[in-house]
Amino acid sequence: MSARFCGTGSCVPDYVMDNDGVAELVETSDSWIRERTGIARRHIAVKETTVSMANEAAKRALDNAGVLPEELDLILMSTISSDVIIPCGACEVQKAIGADKAVCFDLNGACTGFVLAYNTALAYIESGIYQTVLIVGSESLSRLTNWKDRGTCILFGDGAGAAVIKKDERASYIPAAHSDGTRGEALLCHSKREENGLPLQKNDENGGKHLNSEDYLMQMDGQGVFRFAIKQVPEVIQEVLKKNGVKPEEIDWYILHQANRRILEAVAKRMGEPVEKFPMNMEEYGNTSSASIPILLDEMNRDGRLKRGQKIVLAGFGAGLTWGATIIEW
Q: What is the pTM of this model?
């Protein structure tokens, strides 16, 4: 027994900050950012929240799947930047879409989160506990970003992606995932209780703060994360292929977490696979953590690049350190 993707959806904020906008905050330039990351723009949540974007992405995924909210057995939301702690974001999505029969909980797997959420959903489906699951990845990373730190503020953006998966009688693929907490200091988000330096609409019409008000700011060892990714990601992809007896040339698409163009190009080279099989959209969105894979899936689904029967590798990597890969058949 396996799981089949039957619908996708996504939502990104209206406000777009290009690299010239970032250059107004820190010493950098459009050409410098593009050359090192492949990022040209990022969407920043001003009026939107992590939950409101998750709600919209979920509704679009259900509509695309032709699935009613009351058919959902489980809602998983992957996020590190929810605007609510309790109730969890997944319960807020349940309320917004009217999925009154679903069990709901959040999962914090950072940039590997959507892959881990899919693996969790697959385990529930294979066990026979649930049959129809909504997975959402939603992030407002702009609220955790130190907009005075050039090494991190050029990278991150906000957005949400969602997918509906259902029980399928085909055989499933065995996933692969790993964590190494001893290297967790490579990407941290600790309490700072200081403003993050992004001068965008500090107060809404009700007096609530949107940005510059968060207590948590990310810190990253960029070179350390880069070295980790270009080593571990090809290895975990090769691991999942070997576990399932699948050859690299049988894979139609490698849909990886959209962290950095250089990382994805290095992974393709190490695997000896054409870079064309590694679709990228970080130019428009930046690094949206657990939202990046489902946003890209939704784009590819809606523009017709995804065809039934295609074999796809999903791979995530990020804070924890945690990394993983899984094979799906569209």
A: 0.92
